[in-house]
Amino acid sequence: MHVPDHVMDPGTSLATAVVAGAALTYAVRRARAEATRERVALTAVASGFVFAAQMVNYPVAPGTSGHLVGAALAAALVGPWLGALAVTVVLVVQAVLFADGGVTALGVNVLLMVGVGTLVGWSVQRLVARLATRVPDVGRVALAAAGGALASVPAAALAFVALYAVGGTADVGLGAVSAALLPVHAAIGLGEAVISGVVVAGVAVLAPGVTALDRRPASPAATRRGSLALGIGSVVTAGGLSALAVSAPDGLEWAAQRVGFDHTFGSVLAEVPLADYGAVTGVPGGVAGLAGVAAVAVLVVLGLRRSSTAPA
């Protein structure tokens, strides 16, 4: 779902950057009250895990693949405000260091993947959690996380279609864009749901009360266990499992090829050393992935600590 440079016209890119910036400013203010040392650490490793998991493209249909978006997962782990900030940092690091997603399209990607993904994902998660009050806590949070993830991906794809109607740079039919984009992203949402449900269930078992939807109180020791589990998962995924990623085009690229607007795809930072996760310059993918995990985690810690000490 990473939108490259040049897919949207400059006016739309600028407008989405303004909207995304305003939304993130509000998220920072809401997150300040939650930014304890333990929650900051948990958010940092959750962002690292989202980055690592996004490296693992899984097959969806013949000729196409998908990967975790992560907004709903982050919200389920640390709540919508901290989660939104965490995934935003992931998108910035991906665009600047890895040429994954356009720099000029950062506002578009934050609005779609973070804004829509978090809003829809968290809303559905809250609804499922309220309806599943009789389900044991681990099953309840896993079910809620999966439900929110399932809804968030096609919702972001639908929002892309709406934005493309306003500012797309290719003259293609919106009906064709919708027909190509929405079914494949509904399928990608199934993978998102499975990953999110399994990860949240695992954290809920190892660290009772830590996930955002868990009704149980969380002890400092449980929070540390949850952070350690996500940290280990990040290292294993980025350093090892990322090698298993399939090379088929992701859902957006596949749809663009079918409809005929893939010629607009580009990157203003295509020559950075870690572009395409090291493939362009020969850096091993695992090394590039671990560097990305570290960069994301450090930036989240620095950003949240600074925001928590800044005057309101």
**Class from secondary-structure proportions:** mainly alpha
- The H-and-E topology, N to C, reads as HHEEHHHHHHHH
Content of β-strand: under 5%
Low-confidence stretches: none
Number of helices: 10
By oligomeric state, this entry counts as: single chain
Q: What's the end-to-end separation, in Å? A: 34 Å
Biggest sheet, in brief? 2 strands, antiparallel
Spatial order of the strands forming the largest sheet: 1-2
Computed CA radius of gyration, to the nearest angstrom: 18 Å
| DSSP, total strands | 2
| Helix fraction bin | 55-70%
Please tell me the overall pLDDT.
94
Shape: globular
Element layout with pairings:
Layout: H1 10-31, H2 37-54, E1 58-61, E2 64-66, H3 71-78, H4 80-98, H5 106-131, H6 137-167, H7 174-206, H8 220-239, H9 251-259, H10 285-309
Antiparallel strand pairs: 1-2
Helix pairs in contact: 1-4, 1-5, 2-3, 2-4, 2-8, 2-10, 3-4, 3-5, 3-6, 3-7, 4-5, 4-10, 5-6, 6-7, 7-9, 8-10
